[in-house]
Write a structure and sequence with these properties.
By secondary structure, the protein is mainly β. The strands form six sheets. The protein has a 21-stranded parallel sheet that branches. A 13-stranded parallel sheet has the order 1-4-6-8-11-14-17-20-26-30-34-37-40, with no helix packed on it.
């Protein structure tokens, strides 16, 4: 009896766990009168949001005030609840906006297996705990004014911040084929990929093609990994928020069509007096591959800066295992750095023409403030310039003949040859424990120089 009463008490005190549910939207055969089931799907994602079918939360009053606003229930009777998944079937969804939906737990919007949902754009504003997976987004999918960004994750001064959003496995493009685009076409028809503000944003495994800017992140404490940005006219990646990690991304093929100085990755600080008067803290750049161009005859080909950070201060950055092949003297550049380390990168210029050679540089801030307490180590690079106070520069090698070190530099294969002098030539002090392929370091007697550890096969 005592055991039975104890179990009964536990059951009464424990909230009932509602199993996660699946809902379906089908623009071709769905109906507004459906119930969202697999056999009676809804017809429109935007209508599901606008009709209050998603159980969520919102601020008790607007404008949002960080020190006093409280979340209250929204759409209490909505059938879609935290933990549920909304499956999208093949069809056109237009421009979708999710605004003021702060879910108590993640709600997923994803492509049903075997289906291709197509959006013109997606805006998630002043919301939280959303997961977006496997969608196709392009202005080609319907009519309407050209958007600035295909996916935008946005905070708003009146409606509140955005946080805890995942975008994964999506395919984004301005157009499927831009091979015949003129300079004017690139400047009038190209749209940018993803722009993310807020906190704790994860952008993973997305494929961006033929875009203006690729992925721009001012969010803090965020993760940007394993994305591909192919054919772009602005910057491939931007990272302006603190404590974010950009890792294992591929950025290649820059189109030089305007006055923007194009970067594979770019950052700058914003402070009380504008650009260059603040700090960007705790960024990690790991295992990224940045390639200026694959085809020497690519139309509108220009010189791409690799990792270009010109308006510090940049504080406590880790830049490791990146492969940079760019036709510019800014391979990895930090102007105004404190407590940063640049270790085991491969930075190579694809030719001997100007601007170049591609270099690793740490120099003073534009305002004259010296860089301090940085480490540059174990790098293979076309040129090197390290200036500042209490700087460490060791075990780096300037590469004059890439063919003597790398398997096939002409095809951008910067793995080490079996007879490369860079093997076992580094030090394990502050070296990453894995290389750009996630292989364990070291394989031999010591850490190898550059982004890749040699492993005999």
């Amino acid at each position: 009896m005592r055991i039975t009463l104890t179990l009964l008490s536990i059951l009464l005190l424990t909230p009932l766990m509602v199993p996660a549910a699946d809902f379906y939207i089908d623009p071709q055969s769905g109906s507004a009168d459906g119930d969202g089931s697999a056999s009676r799907p809804w017809a429109s994602l935007q209508a599901v949001v606008d009709r209050g079918l998603i159980q969520s939360r919102e601020w008790d009053a607007l404008p949002y005030k960080a020190d006093s606003s409280k979340l209250v229930s929204k759409n209490e009777n909505g059938p879609v609840r935290p933990g549920d998944t909304i499956w999208l079937r093949t069809g056109d969804y237009g421009d979708v906006t999710i605004r003021k939906h702060y879910n108590a737990g993640p709600i997923t919007i994803a492509a049903q297996q075997g289906h291709t949902p197509r959006l013109r754009s997606l805006l998630i504003q002043s919301s939280a705990h959303w997961a977006i997976q496997d969608l196709h987004v392009s202005p080609e999918f319907g009519e309407g004014p050209r958007k600035r960004n295909l996916i935008e994750i946005q905070s708003h001064g009146w409606n509140g911040p955005v946080h805890d959003v995942l975008v994964e496995g999506c395919v984004l493009r301005s157009a499927d084929d831009t091979s015949q685009w003129s300079v004017e076409d690139w400047n009038t028809r190209a749209v940018s990929g993803i722009d993310a503000e807020g906190e704790r944003i994860t952008l993973r495994g997305n494929h961006l093609k033929n875009v203006n800017f690729g992925i721009s992140v001012s969010a803090s404490h965020s993760l940007i990994e394993r994305n591909e940005i192919v054919n772009f006219a602005g910057d491939g990646l931007r990272g302006l928020g603190n404590y974010s990690t950009f890792q294992y991304n591929l950025v290649k093929n820059c189109y030089d069509v305007n006055a923007n100085h194009d970067d594979g990755f770019q950052s700058w600080s914003n402070g009380p007096d504008g650009v260059g008067t603040g700090e960007v803290v705790g960024i990690v750049l790991r295992g990224n591959i940045i390639i200026n161009y694959e085809d020497p005859d690519q139309p509108h080909r220009g010189a791409l800066q690799g990792i270009g950070c010109f308006d510090g201060m940049f504080v406590d950055w880790v830049v490791e295992n990146n492969v940079i092949c760019v036709d510019h003297y800014h391979g990895i550049t930090l102007l105004g750095a404190r407590g940063c380390r640049i270790v085991n990168n491969t930075v190579i210029d694809p030719n001997d023409r100007r601007p170049g050679p591609s270099a690793i540089r740490i120099n003073k801030h534009k305002n004259g403030t010296a860089s301090t307490d940085c480490v540059v180590r174990n790098n293979l690079v076309s040129a090197l310039s390290v200036e500042g106070e209490n700087m460490t520069d060791d075990h780096n090698r300037v590469v004059e003949r890439p063919e003597e070190l790398f398997v096939n530099p002409g095809k951008f294969d910067f793995h080490l040859r079996k007879d490369a002098s860079a093997i076992d030539a580094g030090t394990d002090a502050l070296a990453p424990q894995i290389d750009a392929d996630s292989a364990t370091r070291p394989k031999g007697e010591a850490v190898d120089l550059g982004a890749y550890e040699y492993e005999s096969k």
